Amino acid sequence: MRRTRASLVTAGVTTVLALPILTACGSSGESPAASAQTPSASTTSTASPGTTTSPAPTIVLAEFAPYHPGAQAITYDPARVPAGADVAVVSVRDAGRTRTALAVRGLPPNQKFGAHAHANACGEDPAAAGSHYQHRADPKQPSVNPDYANPRNEIWLDFTTDAAGSARSDSTVDWTFGDNPPKSVVIHAEHTATDPGHAGQAGGRLACVDF
């Protein structure tokens, strides 16, 4: 299949993002570059019955676009997250741990963003993604208690773009997703607060990636 410029860019982002993670976790899955055949793609697989191997990594690669049915990466604020910017998300589960990484390209340079895994899928309304995904759920929502809203109990992926508008971040937690895993990664306007009463807050929702 002939790749477009966009698919080649996204494949490059995903390769740079995923290969160090897959190597570090000892994954023997297919190279993520091999799955990057279109500008928007998502792959995940499950081990065959009877095997003891870890689940294959989940890989999402897409270009941001305004909301439309079926969109995998949505921008709600094109000034901060331009349509056509590239995004890649990779999650690897192994030995009771989960490592998640996020890479972006084509955003405004030298700007701070927050990012977290969220409980629900993206939608036309930025609020559709729901609250942060928490391993131990805070009984009081929205969660602003640092005992629950912290990078050990949630997946935080804050980043700052470089002079070219690119960035990469990752999170490692000592648990794996249960029967109800996170459905999206939301990019926010600010780095995430950690103080009581504000913990987990990161400003407006600029974009969302179904995961």
From TrEMBL:
Q: Where is the composition biased (Low complexity)?
A: 31-55
Q: Which residues form the signal peptide?
A: 1-18
Q: Name one Pfam family in it.
A: Sod_Cu
Q: Does this entry carry the keyword Transferase?
A: no
Q: Which UniProt keywords apply?
A: Signal
Molecular function terms from GO = metal ion binding
Q: Which PROSITE patterns match?
A: PROKAR_LIPOPROTEIN
Gene Ontology BP, a term: superoxide metabolic process
Q: Where is this region: Disordered?
A: 28-55
**Which InterPro entries does the record associate with it?**
SOD-like_Cu/Zn_dom_sf, SOD_Cu_Zn_dom
Locate the Superoxide dismutase copper/zinc binding domain: which residues?
Answer: 96-208
The similarity annotation says: Belongs to the Cu-Zn superoxide dismutase family.
Q: What is this protein called?
A: Superoxide dismutase family protein
